[in-house]
């Protein structure tokens, strides 16, 4: 493994070991930020995650939500916010959150770790910005 991949995977392991069930994303984001991740870009439904890091970039391919040909759901901000709140309250797993985001019409999102914000995108340019709180590890 390259040093960037090692740095990322070790940070992910550490973050998951200390991440609380409720409100865990800000902890994960802060661990990744401290490991040098500047932005994390997700593409749905492929579940491809690109990490823009100090010194380079890493791609991580997850299990796709769908295979074959599918109609893209219409972007529905209210359903996205419902999925976000459920996840923030510990009511869903990460794969369940990704599926709910896709069902709400999200085709991708970007987590900007230095600015503590996430922008969710629909296929027609729709977007929803959500800021998350600063945490201290």
UniProtKB/TrEMBL annotation:
Highest taxon of source: Bacteria
Name listed for the protein in its UniProt record: DUF1398 domain-containing protein
Species the sequence originates in: Leptospira yanagawae serovar Saopaulo str. Sao Paulo = ATCC 700523
Lineage: Bacteria, Pseudomonadati, Spirochaetota, Spirochaetia, Leptospirales
């Amino acid at each position: 493994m390259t040093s960037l991949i090692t740095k990322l995977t070790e940070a992910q392991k550490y973050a998951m070991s200390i991440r609380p069930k409720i409100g865990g994303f800000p902890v994960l984001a802060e661990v990744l930020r401290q490991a040098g991740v500047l932005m994390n870009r997700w593409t749905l439904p492929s579940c491809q995650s690109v990490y823009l890091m100090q010194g380079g970039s890493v791609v991580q391919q997850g299990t796709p939500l769908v295979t074959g040909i599918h109609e893209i759901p219409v972007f529905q901000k209210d359903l996205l916010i419902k999925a976000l709140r459920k996840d923030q309250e510990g009511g869903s797993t990460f794969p369940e959150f990704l599926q709910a985001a896709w069902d709400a019409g999200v085709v991708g999102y970007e987590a900007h770790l230095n600015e503590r914000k996430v922008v969710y995108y629909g296929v027609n340019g729709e977007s929803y910005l959500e800021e998350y709180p600063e945490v201290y590890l």
